[in-house]
Amino acid sequence: MLTPPEDTRGGAVGTRSGIIAAMASPLVAALLLSSQAALPPALLAVVPRPVRIERGEGAFVLGPATRLRADASLRRTAELLQEELRRATGWSFPLLDSFAPADPGAPEIRLRIDRSLAGLGSEGYRLTSTPGGVEISAAAAAGAFYGVQTLRQLLPPELLRKAKTPGVRWEIPAVRVEDRPRFSWRGSHLDVARHFMPKRAVLDHIDLMALHKLDVFHWHLTDDQGWRIEIRKYPRLTEVGSRRRESQLGRDEEKGDGTPHGGFYTQDDVREVVRYAAERFVTVVPEIEMPGHAQAILAAYPDLGNTPAPVEVWTRWGISERVLSVDERTIAFLTDVLAEVVDLFPSTYVHVGGDEVPPAEWEASPAARERMREVGARSPEELHSWLMGRVGAFLASKGRRLVGWDEILDGGPPPPGAVVMSWRPAKGGLEAVRAGLDVVMAPTTHTYLDYYQSKEPGEPLAIGGFLPLETVYAFEPVPPELEGGERTSCILGAQAQLWTEFLATPEAVQYMAWPRLAALAEVVWSPRESRDLADFRARLAPHLRRLDALGVRHGS
Ligand code: TNX
């Protein structure tokens, strides 16, 4: 224990006078100040690091008599905790509502809404554990959920195993935690188009996101190599578009593996994933790629292309030259698809790709050239921008906001309300922030988890690049050029990308995701001032035992 409390009156929690003083002043500033005062002992290996965590004296030890108590609006969160506690310990953990008679002596884990904590925001929480029990309070349900994620990390890692572990002392150290996220968009992107990932793997990924307080699951559902979501009006999208004859073998574009690959999610699957995610305070943002990365659409519906030449669902990686046309028929198709998508996904944000659109087909197509004349577009980039405008207007009519990769800026201003996902490091982000647009930072330099994490021999074949854990951890979503006081509130946050050209299985995805995604989680959750690589490394060792307990394949 590095910071023993000097005074334990009023509970087992550290009550150094500085902390008390900090509590009285405006909350956020005070939290930041006090977070610099003392590093938490490595023992309190919470990832991402809370704004403030103070060690108290003693510990709360769970036993067969321990109960849960929760406000009605927190019931589902309490049930999720109950399921896990039951599985791990074999005890029953009865769940009482907040009006059930109190039994002063009974050991309890309590979850409650406390509007006076509004200063911590809707995702902030306070967690207090003493030898007598645990209380998690928050102004809103999301905050209480995040308090529970911290609690899960304060317990022994065996909590996370799929089966009961006998002989464990289920101890929660006495602590006082006050916490809230730095950014609201704490994202994890997963490409299920290059390689299909079974629904269970997607749910497991969402579980891991929640444990790390990540809250946006960007689900890359369509690409040249596969269409993965059932659309009722266009059955050939999945009948034809979800299967490819073979996949590229390694890096050699000349070679195929001769093995068919396929898979898709039914609309029921999608609803299940969305519901599962919502219970874990994760928003699912679907991505339907257009007008490039769309060869799987053209395999199913060749009429939507610029040339009659047939194509198959692509069997190679890279950027297909085949793109959608800009005919009214194609736009009607796209809006039909998006109409079903918005019915399935409650997210305000709908991602429509927009990246990497080779201009050759539009340049050669008389219909596309005619369209350019008609709408006054002087280049394929401007035509692309016009198309995004049409799609953006449709989404706006449904109360949604278009999200696109930063190419949506190349041919002029993006549609009103659009969010720019900045992936090209030197582009996009800064330009978009300066234009006052909302931005999510996703640069290849720091967030592409399909790049190698290590140069050790024996690493599984990857797409290339080199992105070790330290580089992810060093990522700063606010570009240094903006530090002179320019408006940065339009930086919604950041996210990590898992493109799956070279990741054929859920295990391969896990190995690339963890622990680098834990580093990203700290980047987007924890105060910038508390970022400390040595401290993170110290917490990571016990954290990896948690990933082991969960059966997650990971790097180091
Ligand atoms: C670029 S990032 C792509 C993806 C690839 C990825 C591989 C982006 C918007 N497009 O289509 O999978 O690189 O790292």
Structure, described:
- The protein is an alpha/beta fold.
- The strands form five sheets. An eight-stranded parallel beta barrel has the order 8-9-16-17-18-19-20-21, surrounded by five helices. It has a seven-stranded mixed beta sheet with strand order 1-7-5-6-4-2-3. Strands 10-11 form a two-stranded antiparallel ribbon.
- The radius of gyration is 25 Å and the shape is elongated.
- Mean pLDDT is 92; it is low at 1-42.
- It has helices spanning 17-24, 27-37, 75-89, 141-154, 199-211, 236-239, 267-279, 295-300, 328-344, 360-364, 366-375, 380-397, 429-434, 444-447, 469-473, 506-513, 516-525, 533-549; strands spanning 52-61, 67-70, 95-97, 108-113, 125-130, 133-138, 171-179, 185-191, 216-220, 222-223, 226-227, 243-244, 248-249, 252-256, 261-262, 283-290, 349-353, 401-405, 419-422, 438-441, 491-498.
- It is built from 18 helices and 21 strands.
- Bound molecules: ligand TNX.
- Residues 355-356, 405, 423, 448, 450, 463, 499, 501 line the site of ligand TNX.
